[in-house]
Design goal:
- The chain contains 8 helices and 9 strands.
- By secondary structure, it is α/β, with parallel strands linked by helices.
- The chain has one domain: Rossmann fold.
- The longest helix has 18 residues.
- The radius of gyration is 18 Å and the shape is globular.
């Protein structure tokens, strides 16, 4: 089935594939629960809000964090864009506000993104071949295009975009940058969604997309996939799927993915301090080594001894 024919999302999930992408501030009136299972337990100030598209009859917003005293007319730095977790059903911007603020202070332009949530009760009623993940992928791709389209205003180097995400958001971070067949026809022409690196926090790489193979992350694991760093707790059931994905990449000759393990930790461990700082410090090191950042991590490491172990 062709790209244009596959972009139609069921009316059951209210998929109105909105207008062109404008640099429009969004209303910042949503109240978030920072202690929910898909959100960090650290509160930080909100970033600058924007609407990046209309979909499902609603505005889709993101928040941008800028380096201190930022002048986009004088600087162009890599951009990093975060997709929250929540099983494509829930989640909110707060999950990665802390990470955005940190990386902005380190010199990146960072964004945390909302996308369509697909209620569980709707999923079984979708037409054959129409994955509930598809609507989320469409929005994630639009958000990446928005950042690239507005690179000049934001001070972003559009050729150096890092995509990041937790759980379902980790799936989106990979598929949105690699799936060429899934596109919102309302997006601007000529702007690709390719990225240069990944930060993946217990990504949901479970292979359950037999009804919509274009949404299956396994399809996009290739020898030329950009480098990334992946974090899992060893008590996370999704570690099995993540390990299988990395083994597949290695068998193809792609050795650019690092896997780091937190012993005794479950799914979502990275949301909580001190693990959040430990994970961000390792991500910082990864980005420095690949030329996206300069200098050293500014986070204090915990006195209680939490540390990650690199998988062979």
């Amino acid at each position: 089935m062709g790209a244009k024919s596959r972009v139609k999302i069921s009316s059951q999930i209210g998929a109105v594939l909105g207008v062109a992408l404008f640099l429009v501030p969004a209303a910042n009136s949503v109240t978030f629960d920072p202690f929910s299972e898909d959100s960090t337990n650290v509160r930080v100030p909100h970033g600058k809000p924007y609407v990046y598209k209309q979909s499902g009859g609603e505005p889709r917003d993101l928040e941008v964090y800028f380096p201190p005293d930022w002048d986009p007319s004088k600087n162009k730095v890599p951009g990093i864009i975060f997709f929250h977790g929540g099983d494509w059903t829930g989640g909110n911007l707060n999950q990665f506000r802390y990470a955005c603020q940190y990386f902005a202070n380190r010199g990146l332009v960072a964004a945390t993104v909302n996308y369509r949530m697909i209620p569980r009760e709707v999923r079984d009623g979708l037409p054959k071949g129409e994955s509930f993940k598809r609507a989320c992928i469409l929005d994630a791709k639009s958000a990446i295009r928005w950042m690239k389209q507005h690179a000049e205003e934001l001070g972003v180097d559009a050729q150096r975009i890092i995509t990041a995400g937790g759980s379902a958001g980790g799936h989106l971070a990979v598929v949105a940058t690699t799936a060429k067949e899934i596109n919102d026809p309302a997006d601007p022409d000529g702007i690709d969604t390719g990225g240069r690196a990944f930060l993946l926090f217990n990504p949901n790489f479970k292979t359950d997309d037999t009804g919509d193979l274009e949404a299956d992350v396994q399809k996009y694991l290739t020898a030329d996939l950009p480098p990334g760093i992946v974090f899992f707790g060893d008590q996370d059931s999704y570690l099995t799927y993540g390990s299988e994905a990395l083994s597949k990449l290695k068998s193809m000759g792609n050795s650019g993915m690092e896997l780091w393990i937190a012993k005794g930790q479950p799914h979502g461990f990275f949301n909580n301090l001190p693990w959040q700082d430990v994970v961000l410090a390792e991500a910082d090191r990864f980005l420095v080594e690949r030329g996206f950042l300069k200098g050293s991590c500014t986070l204090p490491m915990p006195q209680t001894g939490e540390k990650l172990i690199k998988a062979p």
